[in-house]
């Protein structure tokens, strides 16, 4: 998942290494931290349907389709 990894690196450059902690939490099953899809492969844990990003992501996926999605919570706003 090279595009996903690149997206994570870009977020870490923007917000700091706490982004990697959020990715690990999402991979371990913590909701609202990290979720990604690339080339039919999905990793992380979905954001709750009540989380604001869920509706935006769902609308974009349905309306436009995609080959790559990477959602990482802002470190200061992550739940858990």
* Helix percentage range: 40-55%
- Indicate the structural class: alpha+beta
Name the strands of the widest sheet in spatial order: 2-1-3
Radius of gyration: 12 Å
Strand content: 15-25%
- Describe the sheet with the most strands: 3 strands, antiparallel
Please trace the helix and strand order, writing H or E for each element.
HHEEHE
Molecular shape? globular
Distance between the termini: 26 Å
Q: What is the total tally of β strands?
A: 3
Averaged pLDDT, please? 85
Unreliable segments (pLDDT under 50, ≥5 consecutive)?
none
Please tally the helical runs, counting DSSP H or I stretches of 4 or more residues: 3
Q: What order do the helices and strands come in, and which of them pair?
A:
Elements: H1 2-15, H2 18-27, E1 34-38, E2 41-44, H3 52-64, E3 68-72
Antiparallel strand pairs: 1-2, 1-3
Helix pairs in contact: 1-2
Structure notes:
This protein has 80 residues and is α+β, with helices and mostly antiparallel strands. It has 3 helices and 3 strands. It has helices at 2-15, 18-27, 52-64, and strands at 34-38, 41-44, 68-72. Strands 2-1-3 form a 3-stranded antiparallel sheet. The longest helix has 14 residues, at 2-15. The N and C termini lie far apart (26 Å). The model has no long low-confidence stretch (mean pLDDT 85).
């Amino acid at each position: 998942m090279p595009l996903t990894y690149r997206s994570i690196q870009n977020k870490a450059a923007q917000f700091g290494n706490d982004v990697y902690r959020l990715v690990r939490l999402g991979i371990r099953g913590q909701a609202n931290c990290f979720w990604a899809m690339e080339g039919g492969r999905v990793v992380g844990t979905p954001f709750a349907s009540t989380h604001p990003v869920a509706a935006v992501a769902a609308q974009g996926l349905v309306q436009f389709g995609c080959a790559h999605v990477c959602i990482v919570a802002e470190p200061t706003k992550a739940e858990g």
